[in-house]
Amino acid sequence: MSRFTRYTTSIGRWIARKLTWPRRAADSARVTVKQVRTGRRTVRDVAKTGVGTAGAAALLLVLLFPVYWVLAASLSQGSGLMSSQGIFADPRSYNLEAYRWVLFESSFTYAAVNSLIVVSITVLVSMSVIIPGAYALSRREFLGRRGILYGYVLFTQVGAGLSIATLIALYALFVNLGLDNNLLVLGVFYAAGAIPFNTWLLKTFMDNIPVSYEEAAIVDGASQWQVIREIILPLSKPGIAVVLVFTFLAGWNEFVIAQTLLQSHNYTLSVELYSLIAGGGYETPWTEFSAFAILFALPVAAIYFLAQSYVEDGLSFGGMSG
C-alpha cells in the first residue's frame, strides 16, 4: 500500500468516524443508563461526567470561536469583520470573492513559492543535522558531550532575551556580507535556530529506545549503519515527526527576521500577510486578510493532521506531554 493510499484511507476513516458520532453518542448513553440501573455507576458520577464534558465542550467552543469568526469574515461581503446585522454576516451573502482575489490578484502565489523555498531549506538543513546529532548525543560517549548538551540548552533559553540585540547585529552582518534579501540564507538561518531545541527533543526520545535492540542486531551480524537504518530510525518515527513539524513551523511562521531582511519581491507569506494591513492606509481589507490568513494556515493544519498520531506519540515519549 502506497503512502498516498494510507493517507487517503486514514482521512476516510476519520471522516466516517466523525459522521457516525450521533450513533456512538446514543450507544454511550444507553450503556450509561444500563450501568446506573444495575448499580455499576451512581447518578452523581454520571452528573460529574456530564458537567466535565459540558465544560470541555464550552472551552472548545471558546477556543474555536476566533477561527470561526475569521472563516465567516473571509466569506462575507464588504471589507469589515462585522456586518451591519451584527458580528456575523448573513450566511446567504457568503461568497468566495475574497479567496479569488487572494489566489489570482494578490501576491499570494509568489509569496507561497518564496515560503516553500525557505521552508525546504530549513527542513533539509535541520534534519540533516538533528537526526545524526541526536543519535550521537543519545548513544555515544565522546569528549565534550556534556558541554554540547549544556550549550544546546543554553541556546534554547537565551535567544528570546537577546532578540532585539541579535536582530540588529544580524541585520548589520547580513547587509555587510551582502546576504540580505536571500531566501536560501534565510532558510539556513532558520535551521540554525531550530537545531538546538529539536536535537535535544529527538535525543530525549531516542533515550527511550532500549539499547538491547541494538545489541541484539549487532549480535545477529548487523552493521552500525544497518542498526541505525533498520532499528533506530523506524522506532524514532514519532520523534522525527515532531521535529519535522517544529522545523516546518520555524520556517513557515517566522515574521520579524523575514520582514527585516527581505525586500518586497522576496516576501514570504507571513510578511505578505502583514503587508495587507500595513499597506492598506486608513482602511484595512479585513475580508481579503481573513481569506489570506485561512490559506496561510491550511498547510500547517494539513501537516499536523497527517502526522497527528506520530506527533502525539513523540510528544509523550519526548517528555513534553500536556
TrEMBL record:
GO biological process assignments: transmembrane transport
Classification via InterPro entries: BP-dep_ABC_trans_perm, MetI-like, MetI-like_sf
CDD domains: TM_PBP2
SUPFAM superfamilies per record: MetI-like
Record-linked PROSITE patterns: ABC_TM1
Keywords: Cell membrane, Membrane, Sugar transport, Transmembrane, Transmembrane helix, Transport
Endpoints of the signal sequence: none
Location relative to the cell: Cell membrane
Record keyword Thylakoid present: no
Keyword Membrane on entry: yes
Residues annotated as transmembrane: 50-71, 108-137, 149-171, 183-202, 239-262, 289-307
One GO CC term on file: plasma membrane
Family annotation (Pfam families): BPD_transp_1
Lineage: superkingdom: Archaea
Membrane topology reported for the UniProt record: Multi-pass membrane protein
Chain ranges of the ABC transmembrane type-1 domain: 112-307
Sequence similarity: Belongs to the binding-protein-dependent transport system permease family. MalFG subfamily.
Annotated protein name in UniProt: Maltose ABC transporter permease
Species the sequence originates in: Halostagnicola larsenii XH-48
